[in-house]
Amino acid sequence: VAKTDGKRTWRLYRDELHQEMIRRLEMRSALNEAVPGEQMRLRYQPIVDLPTGEVVGLEALVRWQHPARGLLGPNEFIELSEENGSVVAIGGWVLREALRTFVNWHSSPAGASLRYMSVNVSARQFRTPGFVDQVREVLAETGARPEWLLLEITESLVLHDADQVWADLRELRGMGIRIAIDDFGTGYSSLSYLSQMPVDVLKIDKSFIDDILHSTQQMALVETIVSLARTLELAVVAEGIELDGHRQALVGMGCPYGQGYLFSKPVTADEIHQLLAGTTTPR
Ligand code: C2E
Ligand code: MG
Ligand code: MG
Ligand code: MG
User: Fold this and answer.
1) Is the beta carbon of 161 within 6 A of some atom in ligand 1?
2) Can you tell me the distance from the alpha carbon of 136 to that of 174, in angstroms, rounded to the nearest whole number?
3) What is the CA radius of gyration of the chain?
């Protein structure tokens, strides 16, 4: 009996593997069609000034309206799109769409107090030759000022391929664009490295915020990152704030900015428009 069971388990496993391979192959080829087929969407999550609750910025978060599978989150396709290179087209679309939308909001009375749009850039996209030129073109095309753009990159991008990446980061910052390290704390940057990195903002990963109310150790860790950022004259944003207790603790340790479900989930452009109209005073 055990033997037949083993065989059946193996067959099930083999079939699942097969299904998974087919799914990935399908997704890969479908991803190449996503931008030309106008299947990409953006959601926006407010970034708030923690002491006042004022919305200061927005993070653009990509979604894929898959023809058969519905609305997919980035965790379901960004890795695949990095593998097949479609992330370059997707990233270009995200940048253009996010800035176009921001310029619209910024020129409306309700959005006049918005300071910036935060855009995630994948490592492969950043390393593609011509990325800096593409950013310059999109700014010119949309009429967005460089100060309105914050590019979120990962710690590992800054740690590897240092020369070209650092040169590009310096060029972008020279244009007036700001750079954030996303998911800070999950990588391996050393203190000495961090102090030299051509970046402006640290975004503390959600995993650090999750436990601050239950673990004095986590609390101390986040406090350390916040004071480190202050020492290095970097701005700091706490991600994944879900509870008012999180907000209070972060305000208490002097963390200036945050984002999370407590304030808003990522929502559509229309919903942001309504949110802004309701919370900011028209000029
Ligand atoms: P991220 O840049 O760290 O973005 C934050 C993620 O955490 C988002 O997930 C957001 O919806 C989620 N989040 C925000 N606040 C909370 C909270 O309070 N609780 C919980 N549980 N989650 C919260 P999302 O939209 O699924 O994006 C996942 C990741 O995909 C992003 O992490 C980012 O690394 C990547 N991504 C998103 N958009 C893009 C894009 O346009 N290009 C590239 N290359 N990557 C993107
Ligand atoms: Mg991000
Ligand atoms: Mg993040
Ligand atoms: Mg994160």
Assistant:
1) no
2) 12
3) 21
The minimum-distance atom of ligand 1 relative to the CA of 119 is 41
pTM: 0.93
Ligand 1 atom closest to 203 (CA): 3
- ipTM surpasses cut 0.95: yes
Query: Are 88 and 32 within 8 A, CB to CB?
Result: no
pLDDT in tens, 37-91: 999 999 999 999 999 999 999 999 999 999 999 999 999 999 999 999 999 999 9
Q: Are 71 and 63 in contact (CB under 8 A)?
A: yes
Distance in Å, CA 266 to ligand 2 centroid: 12
pLDDT digits (tens, 9 = 90+) for 152-173: 999 989 887 678 999 999 999 9
- List the residue whose alpha carbon is closest to atom 38 of ligand 1: 61
DSSP state of 267: B
Tell me if 264 sits within 8 A of 45, measured CB to CB. yes
pLDDT at 3: 63
Q: For residue 122, give the ligand 1 atom closest to its CA.
A: 44
Number of Cβ within 10 Å of residue 119's Cβ equals: 27
**Structure tokens, 160:** 């590897």
Distance 152 CA to ligand 2 centre (A): 6
Q: 61: Cβ below 6 Å to ligand 1?
A: yes
